[in-house]
DNA sequence: TTTAATTATCGCAATATTGCAATAATACAA
DNA sequence: TTGTATTATTGCAATATTGCGATAATTAAA
């Protein structure tokens, strides 16, 4: 009786989990705009990537080895963060000898700026309680 | 000879990993402002949380059960996302009977708006190559 | 062609996030 | 007090992210 119940529960768990993708974000529940907005935020969701972007905005260009010195992270780690930013489109790299020179992608940068700006619409400055 | 080498390598790995915090973000390498900016971005880095904020901006107030219907995620999952947004300070909840009524925290919302806006400084619209 | 310099990728371990069922906690009504 | 409705928390599994050593790939110089 109790045994049967346990077996049944186990089967349910197995069925549920074997239908896969457990633990991953359910992107299909949301609009493309919402998923894109979240993806943009994710690209900014690490202090190293914030630091990289701030540095590029201030200095215009920078090569990987300088980022490694500036950030204090291992070369492999920095390379990965740069890859993510490049994948998000917000920076671009051009090969310069044995180095790679990175800079902001101005077009995508402006898109980010515009989308974040329109996301943060003005809200009424109501009091402490909502309802 | 080879054996000694292997043992030494193992020891190095153990020492390195036992100094702990492996896999976690190295926040101490960055400024408070950079960590804060990344944390704000992280709060927005999920489509469900984007959807929640958009809904609140549009409708002003909303209770948990409505979010559950709107989002199509399980109640536990929605509750967790609301908790994260509350922890980030960007929303606030007030108990209304057996429900909890959520709304944007206008003060923090404006802070987010201002900080994202000042993060996306204007960049020169240079060409394809950086250097 | 060999060597040096620089960057990208692989493989692994640790931590973090996502999602949900089950259950606990809370507030109201009967 | 007991039951009902709603929300929060717990515990677990799956996936994602972070970090880095080792190594491969790429480019320029010798």
From TrEMBL, chains A, B:
Q: Which UniProt keywords apply?
A: DNA-binding, Transcription, Transcription regulation
PANTHER family given in the database record: ARSENICAL RESISTANCE OPERON REPRESSOR ARSR-RELATED
| Gene3D superfamilies (UniProt xref) | Winged helix-like DNA-binding domain superfamily/Winged helix DNA-binding domain
Listed Pfam families: HTH_20 (PF12840)
- Judging by the UniProt lineage, the source's domain of life is Bacteria
The record's section on CDD domains has:
HTH_ARSR
Q: Name one GO molecular function term.
A: DNA-binding transcription factor activity
Question: Which organism is the protein's source?
Answer: Pedobacter soli
Indicate whether Transcription appears among the record's keywords: yes
Name of the featured protein: Transcriptional regulator, ArsR family
Q: Carries keyword Transcription?
A: yes
Location of the HTH arsR-type domain = 29-127
Matching entries from NCBIfam families are given as:
HTH_metalloreg
Matching entries from SUPFAM superfamilies are given as: Winged helix' DNA-binding domain (SSF46785)
